[in-house]
Amino acid sequence: MKVSLFITCLTDLFAPQVGLAVVKSLEYFGCQVDFPAAQTCCGQPQFNNGYFQEAQNLARRMIKVFQGASYVVTPSGSCGAMVKEHYPGLFTHDPAWGRRAEDLAGRCYEYVDFLTRVLKVDLHGLSLPEKTTFTYHYNCHLRGLGLTGEPARRLLEQIGNVTLVPLEKAEQCCGFGGTFAVKYPDISGAMVRDKIACAARSGAAVMIVNDGGCAMNIAGAGHRNGEKFVVRHLAEVIAAAIEHTAAQRKANQG
Fold first, then answer.
1. What secondary structure, in 3-state letters, does 11-64 show?
2. Measured between alpha carbons, how far is 158 from 151 in angstroms, rounded to an integer?
3. 250 part of a folded domain
4. Radius of gyration of the chain (CA)
5. What's the CA angle centered on 36, arms 31 and 37, to 5 degrees?
6. In this predicted model, what pLDDT tens digit does every residue of 9-48 receive, in sequence order?
7. Do residues 48 and 160 both lie within one domain?
8. According to a count of CB atoms within 10 Å of the terminal CB, is the N or C end of the chain lower?
């Protein structure tokens, strides 16, 4: 199965290790992964601020870049939602491009959604090197994709040495919201402080956050507040479990 990675701006610039983890895990499950180097921003910041012409220009570029891909997988729910939820609407007065936008939307998947609905993976054979307690943040843009947090939680619980604990107000926004954090910094700051307080009360060592913007916001606030938990993408956890399990098997074989 051939898969093209849609890395997104924030992942590329601030969390490249997440992209590497996505590739490692997809290859482990039998995918051939390529990275179209011509990809740029998907146009979400422009769209959110009402610059629809500029968003259209970037959408056309993305559609061209990924036109030959069987599947397009992204580690960020918000950028996936931009492609699947908003691209077709950008071209309501341009049927030809509208059809191309619908086609890309149908081939684009958020990472966890792809693992569960397309690959139907089972992680029970994988294990982390030591017992670790996790909690999970259900980011807002998954709602736009029609996804719940259950698939990610189920995958996490299948990995050995994982203990998943509930997060108070798990469905509550972290306050990032793209330009929302810039336009309403006081409200955004109050929201993320509430989010990290919930994470701290959970007692988890790691919070799973599968969106670049949310991860940056929560991790930054936690660091500034001196919290002990760290933020990770589920792909990083799966990749770490793949690496550890492979090393164990090699050691057992002598």
1. HHHHCHHHHHHHHHHHHHCCCEEECCCCCCCCCHHHHHCCCHHHHHHHHHHHHH
2. 11
3. no
4. 18
5. 135
6. 999 999 999 999 999 999 999 999 999 999 999 999 999 9
7. no
8. C
Which of 118, 146, 172 finishes a domain? 118
Which of 118, 143, 174 is where one domain is finished?
118
Q: What tens digit of pLDDT does each residue of 208-224 get?
A: 999 999 999 999 999 99
73 vs 211: CA distance, rounded Å = 13
Q: pTM value?
A: 0.94
Q: How many Å apart are CA 165 and CA 187, to the nearest integer?
A: 27
If asked whether residues 113 and 152 sit together in one domain, one would say no
Q: Are strands 2-5 and 71-74 parallel, antiparallel or unpaired?
A: parallel
Same structural domain, 85 and 146: no
Task: Judge whether 104 and 63 are in contact, CB under 8 Å.
Answer: yes
Q: How confident is the model at residue 254 (pLDDT cuts 50, 70, 90)?
A: low
- Residue with token string 């994982």: 162
CATH number of the domain encompassing residue 44: 3.40.50
Say how far apart CA 206 and CA 56 lie, in whole Å: 38
Position 57: which residue type? Answer: N
